[in-house]
């Protein structure tokens, strides 16, 4: 059973990691992107799909007056035309329209001024005739009949009779211009005080004026003791200075009589109503808004007319698929995918050229998108108060995705995926900016820290880092939204603290941070096993010399085993100095020659240990070359059966590239007649390749040739090593073996210095130690001399 399972997993891994043409991978990517686009759009558009209708018919479960059998909550936000609110706004508009009045300024000349002149002329005549006593004046001037004797006497006593008309006329004009005196009492006096009055002035250039409602006075209020009389009396004292109090009272009383007799203002109901109708018509249709997840009615509550209206509107609007919103989300996701795509093409063009990497990224992304869907169902569930304490972004495992991708791949790729995911969280959180900042900040920090996961303890540190970042962003969101961190209820500090929002959000940040870090530790072994990813921890396991293949190499090809570790030392130092993945290089070198195990004695380094004739017979160059080439093919097959990562397997063919086996090719040409040489195909003496596709495999190519050549040095010195390293590198350059590796001239100089450093320390001249036999001979000779 185990063999069948291992064989099946080997086939799966081989299928996933198989090198495919870039065009094929791109087509797969397009399919995965399209599926992701549909999935994300569906998840984010759920609130806009609508909901089931609620039966509000007279016999329905939710008809007016009945008890709601269940809680009804709107699944999306929408607005509707609210006739009640519109009518209310129209009433407000009407109530704010000033009442219309007509004020005829012609009354001043035709009425008040004429009568005043007549009465003062009579007074002048009476004074000339010597009949100036109050009784006679009241008899001759009927309009002054209701004035007291004291008031008439004050008029008679005033020496400048010619000024009396000016005083009275000035006072009446002031009242006339400032106030609107109406004949009848107004039933809408209270409303008038709020709305004011619009006065149409007849007979003057100032056609229309707006005055306060308290300036419209029914004439019945003029003589009543109260605020109106007090205001009018005060007006007389302010506008008629240097006049005695008794005369001032007489002038004001007489002036008020004329105003009372000729009220110039008339209420215009037609104009008022027309203005109000116009104002009401100008009011736009008012809309009410029902928020997403707003509870319309709770189970057990009475369905009032207002509730029924909301239910009816929900049936009308919330049950419709909001195509505009869905299309908007779809287009936004398209734009984000294009941005992420251009970013990856610009900075990581070769990162996603294999099927396994694409499946890892998209599968993990789908996990997070699915979690967004499930979390939104809980977070915005009926009767849920989570949104009052937490932010939606605090629950989404963005850190898990970006920490995983940052560790497995690199921070650029992880940040790009996190950027896309942050906007998905933003839409799912009902456009909450704090949730977006939580998702984006966590994505960036976890992506950067993911590349720094070197030990298991680093996952614990990652949990603390993600927790700290979320606490900072959440605190900023609370401050911005004005939410309460801590409220004392008097129940004690500990109980108040555990019930506070501060404690709750801190706990949630810890849960999210450490859950994300823990989930990565859980997913990593699965991904390593299924997709055969060469993570740091996977490489550490493969670097164990107890691996079965390395043990076979040790027992069957011991010198190749020794050669392997020397090449590893050279390659790892060069990779370290070039800031490459030295652990990947070390493990790649460990397995680069495992193909020699089946025919270990054929290769020169092992012949002294396995001295069989068939191993050292090189008289058939073509057969020998085929055997050498087979060690590459055998190594690839052995590595696949052992489920080594593709990145490790690539060291097996690429450390030879397409270079020519010069010894066997030369021997073949030498042993054949000149006429038959044209039948020799040089490709039969070349390794199958490919050429090194990375700096790491190119370094191993040079180190492999250098280590073998260094054994033939007669003298180890800096100069001899410089010549040898230069010769090896030049030979690789001459065959164009390094063209596709990405190595630069500067890189080659660093590689030379690194190789030289390792070789000087390992190939230094050692003193020749004496043989034990020679030492015993000297001891014997010394003892004989002593006896003598």
UniProtKB/TrEMBL annotation:
Residues 764-788 are annotated as: Disordered. Keywords: Membrane, Transmembrane, Transmembrane helix. Residues 560-709 form the HD domain. PROSITE patterns: HD. InterPro entries: HD/PDEase_dom, HD_domain, HDIG_dom, Metal-dep_PHydrolase_7TM_extra, Metal-dep_PHydrolase_7TM_intra, PgpH_phosphodiesterase. The chain crosses the membrane at residues 30-49, 323-345, 357-376, 388-408, 413-429, 435-450, 462-480, 502-527. SMART domains: HDc. It holds the Pfam family 7TM-7TMR_HD. The keyword ATP-binding does not apply. SUPFAM superfamilies: HD-domain/PDEase-like (SSF109604). This is HDIG domain-containing protein. It comes from Leptospira yanagawae. The lineage of its organism: Bacteria, Pseudomonadati, Spirochaetota, Spirochaetia, Leptospirales.
């Amino acid at each position: 059973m185990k063999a069948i399972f291992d064989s099946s997993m080997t086939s799966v891994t081989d299928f996933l990691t198989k090198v495919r043409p870039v065009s094929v991978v791109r087509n797969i990517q397009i399919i995965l992107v399209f599926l992701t686009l549909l999935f994300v759009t569906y998840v984010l558009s759920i609130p806009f799909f609508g909901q089931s209708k609620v039966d509000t018919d007279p016999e329905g479960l939710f008809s007016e007056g009945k008890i709601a059998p269940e809680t009804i909550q709107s699944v999306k936000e929408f607005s509707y035309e609210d006739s009640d609110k519109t009518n209310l706004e129209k009433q407000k508009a009407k109530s704010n329209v000033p009442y219309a009045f007509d004020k005829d300024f012609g009354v001043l000349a035709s009425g008040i001024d004429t009568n005043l002149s007549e009465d003062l002329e009579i007074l002048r005549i009476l004074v000339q005739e010597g009949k100036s006593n109050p009784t006679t004046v009241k008899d001759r001037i009927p309009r002054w009949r209701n004035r007291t004797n004291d008031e008439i006497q004050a008029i008679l006593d005033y020496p400048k009779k010619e000024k009396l008309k000016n005083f009275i006329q000035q006072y009446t004009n002031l009242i006339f211009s400032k106030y609107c005196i109406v004949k009848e009492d107004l039933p809408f006096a209270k409303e008038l005080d709020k709305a004011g009055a619009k006065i149409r002035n007849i007979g003057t250039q100032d056609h229309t004026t707006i005055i306060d409602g308290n300036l419209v006075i029914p004439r019945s209020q003029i003589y009543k003791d109260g605020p109106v009389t007090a205001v009018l009396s005060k007006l007389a004292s302010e506008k008629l200075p240097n006049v005695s109090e008794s005369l001032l009272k007489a002038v004001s009383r007489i002036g008020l009589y004329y105003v009372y007799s000729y009220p110039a203002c008339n209420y215009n109901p037609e104009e008022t109503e027309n203005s109000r109708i116009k104002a009401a018509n100008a009011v736009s249709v008012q809309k009410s808004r029902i928020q997403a997840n707003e509870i319309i009615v709770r189970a057990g509550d009475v369905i009032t007319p207002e509730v029924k209206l909301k239910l009816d509107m929900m049936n009308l609007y919330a049950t419709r698929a909001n195509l505009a919103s869905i299309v908007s989300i779809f287009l936004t996701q398209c734009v984000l995918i294009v941005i992420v795509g251009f970013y990856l093409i610009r900075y990581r063009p070769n990162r996603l050229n294999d099927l396994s990497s694409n499946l890892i990224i998209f599968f993990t992304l789908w996990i997070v998108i699915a979690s967004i869907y499930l979390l939104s169902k809980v977070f915005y569930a009926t009767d849920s108060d989570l949104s009052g304490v937490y932010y939606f972004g605090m629950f989404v495992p963005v850190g898990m995705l970006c920490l995983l991708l940052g560790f497995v791949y690199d921070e650029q790729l992880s940040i790009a995926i996190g950027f896309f995911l942050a906007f998905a969280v933003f839409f799912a959180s009902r456009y909450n900016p704090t949730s977006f900042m939580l998702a984006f900040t966590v994505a960036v920090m976890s992506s950067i820290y993911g590349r720094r996961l070197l030990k298991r303890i680093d996952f614990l540190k990652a949990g603390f880092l993600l927790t700290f970042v979320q606490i900072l962003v959440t605190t900023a969101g609370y401050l911005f939204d004005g939410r309460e961190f801590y409220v004392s209820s008097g129940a004690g500090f500990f109980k108040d603290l555990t019930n506070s929002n501060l404690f709750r959000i801190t706990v949630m940040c810890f849960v999210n941070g450490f859950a994300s870090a823990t989930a990565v530790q859980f997913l990593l072994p699965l991904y390593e096993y299924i997709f055969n990813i060469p993570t740091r921890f996977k490489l550490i396991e493969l670097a164990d010399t107890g691996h079965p293949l390395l043990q076979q190499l040790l027992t069957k090809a011991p010198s190749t085993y020794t050669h392997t570790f020397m090449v590893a030392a050279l390659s790892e130092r060069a990779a370290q100095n070039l800031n490459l993945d030295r652990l990947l290089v070390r493990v790649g070198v460990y397995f680069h020659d495992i193909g020699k195990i089946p025919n270990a004695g054929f290769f020169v380094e092992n012949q002294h240990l396995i001295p069989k004739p068939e191993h050292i017979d090189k008289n058939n160059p073509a057969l020998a070359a085929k055997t050498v080439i087979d060690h590459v093919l055998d190594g690839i097959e052995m590595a696949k059966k052992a489920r080594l990562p593709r990145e490790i397997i690539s060291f097996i063919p690429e450390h030879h590239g397409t270079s020519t086996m010069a010894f066997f090719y030369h021997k073949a040409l030498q042993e054949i007649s000149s006429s038959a040489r044209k039948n020799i195909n040089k490709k039969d003496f070349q390794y199958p390749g490919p050429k090194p596709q990375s700096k790491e495999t190119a370094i191993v190519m040079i180190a492999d040739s250098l280590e073998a050549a260094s054994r033939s040095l007669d003298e180890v010195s800096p100069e001899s090593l410089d010549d040898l390293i230069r010769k090896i590198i030049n030979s690789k350059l001459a065959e164009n073996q390094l063209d596709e590796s990405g190595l630069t001239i500067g890189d080659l100089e660093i590689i030379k210095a690194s190789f030289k450093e390792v070789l000087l320390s390992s190939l230094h001249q050692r003193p020749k130690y004496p043989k034990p036999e020679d030492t015993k001979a000297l001891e014997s000779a010394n003892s004989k001399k002593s006896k003598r």
